[in-house]
Automatic annotation (TrEMBL):
PANTHER family: G-PROTEIN COUPLED RECEPTOR, OLFACTORY RECEPTOR. This is Olfactory receptor. PROSITE patterns: G_PROTEIN_RECEP_F1_1, G_PROTEIN_RECEP_F1_2. It comes from Seriola lalandi dorsalis. One of its GO terms (molecular function) is olfactory receptor activity. It is found in: Cell membrane. InterPro entries: GPCR_Rhodpsn, GPCR_Rhodpsn_7TM, Olfact_rcpt, Olfactory_GPCR1.
Length: 321
């Protein structure tokens, strides 16, 4: 006869377990600022892409895809965390928690695939400049983008379904900023080593297979630039690659340590450090992506200047005469 379990009906987001209550409002304002900055910055990019037909090119399609993904992740992850520290409301329904877990891992997987697509686009543009216009059309990039948004559900979906079927019979406090596989694993009443190993393998596959191609593509780009480019063009290409390399490093390296720590003997992370590391690699790139990928782009700078000049003309019509 199997054991009888009392089903957990809701979970509670604890956040940083060592954080003192007097700092709750300050932390809530910090995460609120992060959310507004992420949403406004990335939404501005989406609006600009919609209004400016000159930006309807493959490179900007993938940038908009990344912006929408960043808005989605911030919207899934931050409102409940803000509510936990602003109104001491960290409760989430059972199925709501699993939905959040799925979407958290979904947007993480999606970002990995988008970075892969972005690297592919740059690889073709720099290494095959003559064939690029026919190889990477707007329709091709749109198809790749939709494919990424669809296939990114597969691995998180497998993990979510397997954990949904697990019995949760006791503690319901999630020592994390949001529901995810690692935090829910410790609340299951039975051995979860098989499910966690499956989730870990899936995460490593969706994260580091794209990373392998990204590294390969950038090596090819560097070799191609060293052979062909001269002077300022070479420095501009290297600057773009270095900028994207920083974002990729921020996205992948901390995530790797968080996932690998449980498997390395004598290597542990305190809950506060693990949460801080997760928040850093999850929320820092969405905040700065609009500035790094877009505001440093010549075409977008020109559009901003044109918009600002129109505002000056509207507010000061005498400048026309």
């Amino acid at each position: 006869m199997g054991k009888n379990y009392t089903r957990v009906s809701e979970f509670v987001i604890v956040g940083f377990p060592s954080l003192q209550p007097e700092y709750f409002v300050l932390v809530a304002w910090f995460f609120f600022f992060l959310y507004v900055t992420t949403a406004v910055g990335n939404l501005l990019l989406v609006v600009m892409f919609t209004l400016e037909r000159s930006l309807h090119e493959p490179m900007y399609i993938v940038m908009v895809s990344l912006a929408l993904s960043d808005i989605g992740f911030a919207t899934v992850a931050l409102p409940k965390l803000i509510a936990r520290y602003w109104w001491n409301d960290g409760s989430l329904g059972f199925h709501t928690c699993f939905f959040q877990m799925h979407m958290i891992h979904y947007f993480g997987s999606l970002n990995s695939l988008i970075l892969l697509t972005m690297a592919l686009d740059r690889y073709l543009a720099i290494c095959f400049p003559l064939r690029y216009p026919t190889m990477m059309t707007n329709q091709t990039m749109a198809g790749l983008t939709l494919f990424c948004w669809g296939i990114a559900h597969i691995f998180p979906g497998i993990s979510t379904i397997s954990f949904t079927l697990m019995p949760f019979c006791g503690p319901n406090k999630i020592i994390h900023a949001f529901c995810d596989t690692m935090s829910l694993k410790s609340l299951v009443c039975v051995d979860t080593s098989r499910q966690y190993s499956l989730a870990f393998a899936s995460a490593m596959f969706i994260l580091y297979v794209p990373l392998a191609f990204i590294i390969f593509s950038y090596i090819c780009i560097v070799i191609s630039v060293l052979r062909m480019a001269k002077g300022q063009g070479r420095m501009k290409t290297f600057s773009t690659c270095a900028t994207q390399g920083c974002i990729i490093s921020i996205y992948y390296i901390p995530r790797f340590f968080v996932y690998v720590t449980p498997f390395i003997p004598n290597l542990t992370m305190t809950p506060d450090k693990r949460i801080a590391t997760t928040i850093f690699y999850s929320l820092f790139p969405p905040v700065i992506n609009p500035f790094i990928y877009c505001l440093r782009t010549k075409e977008i700078k020109q559009i901003f200047r044109r918009w600002l000049q129109k505002r000056k003309v509207i507010h000061h019509p005498l400048l026309l005469f």
